[in-house]
Amino acid sequence: LDNVLACMEEIFFTPADFVDHVLGSTELCYESTRNSLTTKAVRICAALYEDEHVHSHVTQWAITIVHDMLRTEVTNLSLEKHGLHFKATSATAEQLESAFMHQLA
After folding, report:
1. What is the pLDDT of residues 75-104, one digit of tens each?
2. Helix, strand or coil, per DSSP, at residue 73
3. Interior angle at CA 60, CA 55 and CA 51, nearest 5
4. How far is CA 99 from CA 62, 73, 83, 86, 102, in A?
5. Phi, psi of 69 (to 5 degrees)
6. Residue 12: which region, alpha, beta or left (left: phi > 0; alpha: psi -120 to 50)?
7. Which pLDDT belongs to residue 73?
């Protein structure tokens, strides 16, 4: 491992660069490594989360991901095709509190 890390440092190739390169490659020679990274993603994230130096960064990243996912879901649900669309300029508080919120829940 020391030799691998020394080689990576020598060519200014970070672990993040390695992950990006492997996951972004479509070459068959990286398939095994790509599969290993993807199947062990939860384990990798858990290890980073448990490290005291990285914990806050991983927590903030996770919160941002969840926030973005929820925003996308609400945006998608508010499309006319889902029947939850309304004109914000003309909607009354009663309309929002009645059917719309119950449908959304």
Report:
1. 887 777 766 665 555 666 676 666 555 666
2. helix
3. 10
4. 32, 19, 11, 11, 5
5. -65, -45
6. left
7. 86
